[in-house]
Amino acid sequence: MERDPTIARLAAEAQELSPQLVAWRRDFHRHPELGFQEVRTGGIVADHLRSLGLEVHTGVGKTGVVALVEPSQGGEALPTVMLRFDMDALPIQEENDVPYRSTVPGVMHACGHDGHTAIGMGVATLLARHRERLPGRVKLVFQPAEEGLGGARAMIRDGVLEAPRPLAAFGLHLWSRLPLNQVVVQAGPLWAAADQLEIVVQGKGGHGATPHETVDATLVASHLVVALQSIVSRNVDPAEAVVISIGAFHAGTAGNVIAEVAELKGTVRTFEERVRAQVQRRIQEMVQGICQSFGARHTVRYTQGVPATVNSPEGARLMERVAQEVVGPEGIARIRPMTVGEDMAEFLQRVGGCLILVGASDPEQGWHSPHHSPTFDFDERMLPTGVALLAGAAWRFLEERHSQGNRSP
User: Fold this and answer.
1) Measuring CA to CA, how many Å separate 194 from each of 29, 45, 126, 161, 341?
2) Which residues, other chains included, contact 122 with Cβ-Cβ below 8 Å and sequence gap of 6+?
3) Measured between alpha carbons, how far is 120 from 87 in angstroms, rounded to an integer?
4) Which uninterrupted H or E stretch holds 148?
5) Strand, coil or helix: 217
6) How far is CA 109 from CA 45, 63, 235, 287, in A?
7) Which end of the chain is more exposed for a tag (fewer CB within 10 A), N or C?
8) In this structure, are residues 173 and 117 in contact, taking their beta carbons and an 8 Å threshold?
9) Which residues contact 193 (CB under 8 A, 6 or more apart)?
10) What predicted TM-score, i.e. pTM, was given to this entire model?
């Protein structure tokens, strides 16, 4: 296959940036910040973007940073594409013994967002270097609060998808369980919708020796924990993937006191909106029926989180062509959709595009710890690959949309 000279050049220049990418990533790793608290991280990003001569907007979605890379000629007629990079860390105490270990007690980058931010700064460096050759505009979006706090929605409320509106959005997530620099790119659902479930059972407390005088909230909630799984096994088509997990169960204060109140907290993961609605409805019906049969009252709080991460066919095809140039056809893989959530989905739902996974396992040490683990880490040799993939995707997208009249994917 004859290589695209522009993408080949971007890939070569990305490799040259490798020492700087590692330095950025390790600095962010040493100084992690939780969602909507990325003041230091966002400040470093903004300063770097300004040093490239870009106009920078801060405070987008509270702590987000946005900049536009565009040639000096062309103006509003040029197509626009968006690249997204998340910046937040997690409330986890790091256990790794590495020189760049987190210096913030109880907070660490346990999902690779430090790498994503470094990749974004590298992409900005390359695109700004070649801005006069760009066949359009690239909106660089450094997003806060991806980890369940709604950072994407906050940026959308602040107008990140307007002035100019992108025709598509692209992003990546490094993945510690994939071989180094293997790229997962596919159309359709990649990751799941992630919803939160809270159930409060209100019974009647009493002495453990006289249960007949009580309505045992612990017993009722226990029936719910078991019964909710029948929604997955008996209400949903077996061909559909659904997860209902109760992760927290709180009731009672003493062994000889029957609890008056029990609280359940869990998560629901689905891929299809119709299945999502079906599961939500059945949870309400099941909780009501079981509580009523025991004489208990109840409250159900079902909170829809991020939607499923769904790649458009056109976005995935373009991204696959770029990946073939960067890692070769043998470096591209498909996976079964996973039930983790990712709020890049908010952007893809509105403008289309593609999120890819980039392998970050060290082949010499075997599989790394999973994401959200206190021993999570990744092979930093994937950083220039990430830069090349997203810079190349933006360039290829703009070339094609410029020639096709700015049609959305």
Assistant:
1) 26, 29, 35, 23, 5
2) 14, 17, 20, 21, 24, 383, 384, 386, 387, 391
3) 10
4) none
5) helix
6) 17, 17, 38, 37
7) N
8) no
9) 269, 270, 271, 273, 276, 304, 305, 306, 307, 308, 341, 345
10) 0.94
Q: Which residue among 13, 33, 88, 314 is the active-site one? A: 88
Q: Tokens for 37? A: 């608290």
Number of CB atoms found within 10 A of residue 381's CB: 16
Main-chain phi, psi angles of 251, to 5 degrees: -160, 145
Query: Quick one: average pLDDT of 296-300?
Result: 98
Main-chain phi, psi angles of 311, to 5 degrees? -85, 135
> Where do we find the tokens 């770097």?
48
Domain ranges of the chain: 5-191+308-404, 193-303
- Which listed residue (13, 146, 343, 346) is catalytic? 146
Q: Candidates 3.30.70.260, 3.40.718.10, 3.40.630.10, 3.50.50.60; correct CATH number of 5-191+308-404?
A: 3.40.630.10
Average pLDDT over residues 82-88: 98
DSSP 367: P
Bridge partners of residue 262, in order along the sequence: 201, 251
Record the tokens describing residue 52, joined without a space. 């490239």
Q: What is the pLDDT of residues 226-267, one digit of tens each?
A: 999 999 999 999 999 999 999 999 999 999 999 999 999 999
Place of tokens 């990744």: 378
pLDDT digits (tens, 9 = 90+) for 275-286: 999 999 999 999
Q: How many residues does the chain have?
A: 409
CATH of domain 193-303: 3.30.70.360
Question: Which residue in this structure is represented by tokens 């209400």?
Answer: 235
Residue tagged 């620099």 (tokens):
181
Token pair 């596919």 is found at: 186
Read off the tokens for 83.
């690249």
Which residue shows structure tokens 């994939």?
178
Which tokens is 171 given?
């992003």
Is residue 146 flagged as an active site residue? yes
Q: Rounded distance, CA 50 to CA 61, Å?
A: 19
